[in-house]
């Protein structure tokens, strides 16, 4: 039985962490070792906007030590990921280049949605507990160093996910720049937290019934330790009782009483304040502390991609549900979007031999169809540009920034003339080709329901002699659809060299 040794490197806002895992189809994922060291990248980024040379030097020395450990374990593969401290640094490209040149380690800078999706996968890897708990209204709350992510589940479906700049280190840094007593700073922190959580409640929580909170991240780990519990599940009242004690102590007392390392204790109170306020607004009853870290998500995704493990949970469904909820927020036409999804997926599958795209691009096309008319909520005159701005400003969990850029452009060019030279700085050649191919399919699929009356039934797609035949049945007048189809077919032929032809079944 083949065993793979894998290393995950988390370049976080507060610490660098190396975790070594062993993966096998029979035993799954087993953690062998974990090393971490506090290195305050976030202090540089959140205070000054850049990461200093001294910090880069410290990081490179530590990464060399990590490489030596990886060599000792004879690691087969690894992945290094950076989060908000690198993502938000103005000099991140220089920092990443220095690290690669000096250590040979290439760091993937995760978008926020990618980072949270990995942590979500780490939780889902605990399949029995996870699937049971999300049957009731559940919030996954990850309070990290730089920000907080709240994801809401209702009847095991992901409803929404939002990022709030309420990271424990970020709050600590803001307060450290203020004067006053410790009591004053705690009061100011509470006001800062209350404002963002209350806004989240009004916009997204509304009257949803949240029974459980799944707390993840470094703050949750130390809060669980501070609450003197080895249990993964505690009542929210148990947590609130612990919080009352915490409020009355200074950092030195907290470190001594709860055996929390001094370098982490500054994160405990801000993190606890965030969780306390979330518990109050949701009126949740249970707090689950699964103890997962970003490295656990990195290895879970690696193992899944290499087909070393299999998840029962359908993550693509979560992404699509999240997209549909975004469409709902912007008053999308549900029936039209549903038939458009079918149309574009039929065309994509029928053109499989000719477009050279895979499952992931199919998913991006499906999301584009779901969100294709969200821009009309802002402007009926310029829906394409409005949709682009909405999509680029909205997180879709599990979709990277690059993929979101593809979706936004496909939706934009659905109603605009395609510009091959546009955004040449932000879009590389491969991205522009994918955008063109998916846009061509979306334009044709959308033309098939131009009236939004779902006139076509039983759509079949076949390709022959440089023509793509879309055969369908309809007893209604389809002159509008035929006219629009012919117009959109020109761009499709331009991209693929294949002419779309709409054929109505005889006798219908």
UniProtKB/TrEMBL annotation:
<feature type="domain" description="Ppx/GppA phosphatase N-terminal">
    <location>
        <begin position="20"/>
        <end position="300"/>
    </location>
</feature>
<dbReference type="Pfam" id="PF21447">
    <property type="entry name" value="Ppx-GppA_III"/>
</dbReference>
<comment type="similarity">
    <text>Belongs to the GppA/Ppx family.</text>
</comment>
<dbReference type="GO" id="GO:0016462">
    <property type="term" value="F:pyrophosphatase activity"/>
</dbReference>
<dbReference type="InterPro" id="IPR003695">
    <property type="entry name" value="Ppx_GppA_N"/>
</dbReference>
<dbReference type="Pfam" id="PF02541">
    <property type="entry name" value="Ppx-GppA"/>
</dbReference>
<dbReference type="InterPro" id="IPR048950">
    <property type="entry name" value="Ppx_GppA_C"/>
</dbReference>
<dbReference type="InterPro" id="IPR043129">
    <property type="entry name" value="ATPase_NBD"/>
</dbReference>
<dbReference type="InterPro" id="IPR003607">
    <property type="entry name" value="HD/PDEase_dom"/>
</dbReference>
<feature type="domain" description="Ppx/GppA phosphatase C-terminal">
    <location>
        <begin position="323"/>
        <end position="470"/>
    </location>
</feature>
<dbReference type="InterPro" id="IPR050273">
    <property type="entry name" value="GppA/Ppx_hydrolase"/>
</dbReference>
<protein>
    <submittedName>
        <fullName>Exopolyphosphatase</fullName>
    </submittedName>
</protein>
